[in-house]
Amino acid sequence: MTKQREPLRIAVFASGRGSNFEAILKNIKNGTVNAKVVAVISNKSSAGVLETARKENIPSFHLSDVHFNSLEEYTERLLQVLAEAKTELVVLAGYMKMVPPAIVRHYKYRMLNIHPALLPSFGGKGLYGHFVHEAVLEYGCKVSGVTVHMVDEEYDTGPPVMQKCVPVMEYDTPDTLAARVLVAEHEIYSTAIQLFAQDRIEIKGRKVVIKKWP
Ligand code: GRF
């Protein structure tokens, strides 16, 4: 039997309701994901994720660039929080701010984002939340889906780690499509994190290769 490593130490960045964060927590609790959330960071004081983190006794931080004198100071504070928590993987779950480039570089191939479409379609600056689903419907796509990808210094351009399709129905509105995509998000984000926890992620050129288990 393959020996389990210590739980993967993940830090979650989020700005909103935090349903992905909750799904990840649920899967950690039921043993599907061998990880521990060591910090939750939000740029919004009212974010649901901070509330959930507090209830779960997870260290939570409201950190916004507007509270700092410079990008350098802000970056330094974020790096400090991540380092003190001994973060191994950074998980962006509905984080509506650009992560400072120095942090992206520091956590190269150790930072994930989730996007509610099949990248490279319907991604990039301005394509987030309902704008994504509106654009998918307007284009007349028959499928949409989710992409979990590595974060690089651009918007939504890092290599995909996992993707999952969902059908687009004739009667869909942006809301009904978003709800169907969200179900897939909750499923594959945890699966992708578990691949890191199992040390099964390998980078070959631009590609993420998933190693066999065990
Ligand atoms: C999700 O749709 C995710 O794909 C996007 O932001 C949304 C966050 O939702 N990046 P939640 O806060 O996890 O519920």
What about the largest sheet?
A: 7 strands, mixed
CATH superfamily of the largest domain: Formyl transferase, N-terminal domain
- So, CATH architecture of the largest domain? 3-Layer(aba) Sandwich
Beta content: 15-25%
Unreliable stretches: none
Task: Please state the average pLDDT score.
Answer: 96
The helix-and-strand class reads alpha/beta
Shape: globular
Verbal overview:
- The mean pLDDT is 96.
- The protein has a seven-stranded mixed β-sheet, with helices on one face. A two-stranded antiparallel ribbon has the order 8-9.
- Strand 8 and strand 9 (207-210) form a beta hairpin.
- It folds into two domains: 1-107, 3-Layer(aba) Sandwich (Rossmann fold); 113-214, Formyl transferase, N-terminal domain (Rossmann fold, 3-Layer(aba) Sandwich), CATH 3.40.50.
- The chain is globular, with a radius of gyration of 17 Å.
- Helix 1 (19-29) packs across helix 6 (174-197) and helix 5 crosses helix 6.
- The protein is 34% helix and 23% strand.
- The protein is of the alpha/beta class and 214 residues long.
- It contains six helices and nine strands, in the order βαβαβαβαβαββαββ.
- The chain has helices at residues 19-29, 48-55, 71-84, 101-106, 130-139, 174-197, and strands at 8-13, 35-42, 60-62, 89-92, 111-115, 143-150, 160-167, 201-204, 207-210.
List keywords for this structure.
globular, binds 5-O-phosphono-beta-D-ribofuranosylamine, two-stranded antiparallel ribbon, 7-stranded mixed sheet, 214 residues, alpha/beta, Rossmann fold, 6 helices
Brief description of this entry?
The protein has 214 residues and is of the alpha/beta class. It contains six helices and nine strands.
